[in-house]
Amino acid sequence: MSLFERLLTLWVALCIVAGIALGQFFPGIFHAIGGMEVAKVNLPVAVLIWLMIIPMLLKIDFGALGASNFFELAVAAAISLFGFSSGAALATVVGVLIEVPVMLSVVKIVNASKPWCERGTAVRRMSKALGHAK
Question: What is the pTM assigned to this prediction?
Fold first, then answer.
């Protein structure tokens, strides 16, 4: 394991402290960031959630998901930006706890139905059209 990986918990703790300190010293900037919303969805939180989920979508390793620190980073960022009692921090926690299992279930269903889908007539027609005879 690299030095970064061995000290990952320390890096997360330092980022939480830095986020809280920056929020105390520059509250105007963090209030402006907190006010960036579209359709009542906070854009920084949405970006953090997608940054957390994209690596899982690219290569799903069910064994490594429990060791992922992206969730903690997203929660730390939401708390440092919006405070402990904010709806954004709550949405970050609850949204991810619902979204990740649902997304993993969809991946499992799609992977399980792959042979069934590949037997379909549309796939055979496309295969013939591309010159891949079966």
Answer: 0.35
